[in-house]
UniProtKB/TrEMBL annotation:
Biological source species: Anthurium amnicola
Domain Cyclin-D1-binding protein 1-like C-terminal as annotated: residue spans: 231-332
Region listing for Disordered, in residue ranges: 211-238
Domain Cyclin-D1-binding protein 1-like N-terminal span(s) in chain numbering: 62-204
Keywords of the record: Cell cycle, Cytoplasm, Nucleus
Alphabetized InterPro entries for the sequence: GCIP-like, GCIP-like_N, GCIP_C
Domain of life: Eukaryota
Gene that produces this protein: ccndbp1_1
Keyword Glycoprotein: no
Protein name in the entry: Cyclin-D1-binding protein 1
Family, per entry: Belongs to the CCNDBP1 family.
Pfam families (UniProt xref): GCIP_C, GCIP_N
Regions annotated as coiled coil: none
Amino acid sequence: REGAVVSDPETQGKKTRGEMARAARKKHLARTLNSHAQSIHEVFQVFDQPAAPSLEKVDWSEVTKLGDEISKQATITGMLWTGETPNARELEDNIGTYCNMLQGFLLLSHGSTVGAGPTLQACIHASAKQIIDCSLSLLQEATSSYGSCSDKKTTIPRLSGSVWEACSALKKTPTTNCMAIGRALTQVAVSVKDVIREMRELKPAAIGSVDEMPAETSNTCESNEEDGASEDGLGNDLSPEEMNIAHLTIDVVSDALVIIKEAIRFITSLIKKPPQGVVSENYVHPLESLLKHYQELGVQVDELGACVYPPQEVSLIRATTEKMLNITNEIQAEVQNMEGSSEGLVRSLQAFKGSLGKLQLGSCPDTGLVQEMGSLAV
């Protein structure tokens, strides 16, 4: 047809052969990466358990030093894409070097868990997993981008950056059981602070009832209340009786925050000045038990905070405070069996139990209280 462009069969054939060759190299790169990734995941399974106590513990500085090398390797991977598309050989060499480094990093990280309790083990596991996941995502993107015409000048540098951040966070990982447990307690404290902040936003209902207002005013008020409910998502207005329970609940939650802070101070004292003849790491099991009780207490604080919103669930408030009292007794028993400067913690636990008792009395319905009083022998 006149004016039609006729392609050169020879040129077209060369183009097809070139595309087939690139596709084959890309497939080879994908197989190489998958093989390395499989090996890395198999090595990662050793983290299911801490290293055996009989092994020599790897110093954490060795782990962070290799983390710095991984960060540099991520930079090298990103630089391969700053100019022209890298050749397959460069990418394959980079994949091999990078993945061997990751396997070595996992073995060192696991070696640092000798003597680690569940909390420290979980911290090291999470830090190592973040580096592995970010690194494999970077390599996967680099491999899938080979031979592609798409612009990778933003995606690959961003993934390299995620590896840098993970390697930087590695240096902030707790290195002892006491530090790891202290950090976990701090997370509980943050959650409790949020509950206190939310509860302090509660406010008493406006004085006077809607029924006493003129019809027009009443309709306007109802409309505003509906608008407020849609904006805030939850009505916070409490009756005087409900407000009293809310104040008592805030006292309980505030005292819960105090006993968490005192527990953190107690653990800090074990790190800085352990009792004579006692190694702080010997406290691993009792401190892990203590942390478990505090985490359960944090769950109950969340439950208690939810109960004070109208309509208040008084029976659930009383059941929750009873659970919290039992947990507090268990914490006291645990602390009494441990040496160290625990006077401040013991006093705060007693004050907390007093706040719980006041809330239990304050949330007791009058009818129930009369029945209880009537059942007492004179």
